[in-house]
């Protein structure tokens, strides 16, 4: 076998081992939260005899966890054996060695947990699993990088953040929509209707409607988790929280359009925005943003509660002032730090129901926070040159595609772990576990594909997969907490 074939086999084994370890973590948390561990108190079999009893969902979960542990161990051994036949860099070797040493320790901790159930041993088991997953992820990222470096040639060019200035405004191009307008003094009533439709459409575009479904799901998941404390959901509170949230997102988006109108003109992706073409006068857009902000605050104050209102206003301030004005044009950390704005709806949803902030809401917020770079960096890779033209120091512009992809993988890994932690802390069950496994695997594979096929299309696909991933996780939380409760 050639060394290239062995290296390819090693990469495949490492991908499979990393995914299997994640499956193991999710099944492990589900075993613990569903109480299926109580059905078995011996190890490695569930009784002194090896006879198979009636198949129950608890048994399936329990045996599933053990079976996947066995498969993961075999995959890890296979990866280590294959690694011994090729030259590896230090990071891959260290990550793999780390996982190989800790895996048998983890099996011992798991056996101890079966025989003597204890919260402390359970927490140690979860923590160790996360550390093993981290080691494998580091090894995987380095392996994929070396693989793509050897096949791709020169790395993509990067730009120093301090040197990024918006390109001179050379676009005096007329509004393509306005240019095709009939209009004029003889405008018919159908022409005026078309005009009105266009104006309404422009205002709707200012509110960034495409983002709303996912942010609403975040707030709904926060509300769903809150019911696990015993709190009941009032339909009026749910409706008012969603309405207040939608108005607040609309306000944020509008102010974002106002502030970025000159840079938007320079970027191909955003050059058709309403304020670039004066479809809405800037003063009107500012008034629109203020009206949306005040209406949102009133809705939240009258039908929800004061803390939720303050958090909603804080979210608008975070996105508009901290992210749009301060971070986005000035630092490559804009996305990481800006992720806090999108995380706030998780707290808003929880606070709308309980009136205070508690641990599960913070962990859900952490999931959104960690997911944000994994979500956005793929889009920023696809539009790297566009962002450079607009003068935005987005991470791929400053650090290059390869390093950005490394960060996507690491933030994705952290998101997967935070999702498992949330399931464990909130006591979520089957549906959440299966969704985390299925969509987590799809998300991870879509990013791995970026290494093999570093095109704009593949990066954009990862971006959309990131949205479906988060959407599915949030729907699983909502269904488990609200519909199956
Ligand atoms: C700093 C944080 C974030 C950045 C920089 C970012 C960036 C972007 C950008 C540039 C787009 C394309 C928008 C367009 O072309 O109109 C987008 C789309 C989107 N984002 Fe994010 N995003 C962030 C956080 C979030 C959060 C927290 C959520 C929800 C939880 C979210 C959900 C979405 C959705 C649903 C889309 C629409 C995709 C589509 O169907 O076109 N984003 N994001
Ligand atoms: C409740 C409430 C008000 C929440 C606000 C949170 C919020 C709107 C988060 C979304 C962040 C986001 C989608 C940024 C888009 O990036 P960008 O603005 O950099 O995109 P662009 O390049 O398309 O302008």
TrEMBL record:
Topology versus the membrane: Multi-pass membrane protein
A GO molecular-function annotation: protoheme IX farnesyltransferase activity
CDD domains: PT_UbiA_Cox10
Broadest EC class assigned to this enzyme: transferase
Catalysed reactions, semicolon-separated: heme b + (2E,6E)-farnesyl diphosphate + H2O = Fe(II)-heme o + diphosphate
Subcellular location: Cell membrane
Keyword presence, Transmembrane helix: yes
GO CC, one annotated term: plasma membrane
Keywords: Cell membrane, Heme biosynthesis, Membrane, Transferase, Transmembrane, Transmembrane helix
One Pfam family hit: UbiA
Transmembrane segments: 61-82, 94-114, 120-141, 211-231, 237-259, 280-300, 306-326, 333-353, 359-383, 408-425, 431-448, 468-484
Annotated pathway: Porphyrin-containing compound metabolism; heme O biosynthesis; heme O from protoheme: step 1/1
Disordered, as annotated region: 153-191
Note: Carbon 2 of the heme B porphyrin ring is defined according to the Fischer nomenclature.
HAMAP family: CyoE_CtaB
Membership in a protein family: In the C-terminal section; belongs to the UbiA prenyltransferase family. Protoheme IX farnesyltransferase subfamily.
Protein name (Swiss-Prot/TrEMBL): Protoheme IX farnesyltransferase
């Amino acid at each position: 076998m050639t060394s290239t074939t062995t290296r390819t086999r090693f990469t495949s084994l490492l991908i499979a081992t990393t995914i299997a370890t994640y499956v193991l973590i999710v099944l492990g948390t589900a075993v613990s939260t569903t109480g299926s561990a109580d059905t078995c108190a011996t190890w490695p079999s569930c009784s002194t005899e090896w006879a198979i009893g009636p198949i129950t969902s608890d048994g399936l979960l329990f045996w599933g966890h053990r079976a996947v542990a066995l498969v993961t161990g075999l995959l890890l051994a296979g990866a280590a054996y294959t690694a011994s036949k090729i030259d590896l860099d230090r990071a891959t070797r260290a990550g793999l060695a780390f996982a190989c040493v800790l895996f048998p320790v983890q099996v011992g901790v798991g056996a101890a947990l079966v025989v003597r159930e204890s919260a402390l041993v359970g927490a140690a088991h979860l923590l160790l699993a996360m550390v093993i997953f981290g080691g494998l992820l580091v090894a995987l990222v380095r392996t994929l990088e070396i693989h793509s470096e050897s096949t791709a040639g020169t790395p993509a060019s990067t730009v120093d953040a301090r040197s990024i200035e918006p390109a001179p405004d050379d676009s005096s191009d007329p509004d393509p929509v306005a240019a095709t307008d009939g209009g004029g003094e003889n405008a018919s009533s159908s022409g005026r209707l078309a005009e009105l439709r266009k104006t309404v459409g422009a205002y709707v575009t200012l509110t960034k409607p495409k983002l709303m479904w996912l942010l609403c799901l975040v707030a709904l998941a926060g509300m769903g988790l809150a019911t696990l404390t015993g709190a009941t959901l009032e339909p009026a509170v749910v409706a008012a929280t969603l309405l207040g949230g939608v108005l607040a997102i609309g306000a944020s988006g509008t102010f974002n359009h106002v502030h970025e109108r000159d840079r938007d003109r320079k970027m191909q992706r955003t050059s058709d925005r309403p304020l670039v073409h004066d479809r809405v006068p800037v003063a009107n857009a500012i008034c629109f943003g203020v009206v949306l902000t005040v209406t949102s605050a009133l809705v939240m104050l009258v039908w929800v509660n004061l803390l939720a209102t303050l958090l909603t206003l804080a979210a608008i301030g975070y996105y508009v002032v901290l992210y749009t004005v301060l971070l986005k044009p000035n630092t490559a950390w804009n996305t990481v730090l800006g992720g806090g704005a999108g995380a706030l709806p998780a707290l808003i949803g929880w606070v709308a129901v309980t009136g205070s902030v508690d641990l599960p809401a913070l962990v859900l917020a952490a999931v959104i926070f960690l997911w944000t770079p994994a979500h956005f960096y793929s889009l920023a890779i696809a539009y790297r040159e566009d962002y450079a033209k607009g003068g935005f120091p987005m991470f791929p512009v400053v650090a290059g595609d390869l390093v950005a992809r490394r960060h996507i993988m690491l933030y994705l890994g952290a998101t997967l772990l935070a999702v498992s932690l949330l399931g464990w802390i909130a006591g979520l069950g089957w549906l959440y576990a299966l969704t985390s496994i299925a969509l987590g695997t799809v998300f991870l594979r879509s990013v791995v594909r970026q290494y093999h096929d570093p095109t704009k299309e593949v990066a954009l696909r990862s971006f959309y997969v990131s949205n479906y991933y988060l959407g599915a996780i949030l729907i699983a939380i909502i269904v488990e907490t609200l519909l199956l409760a």
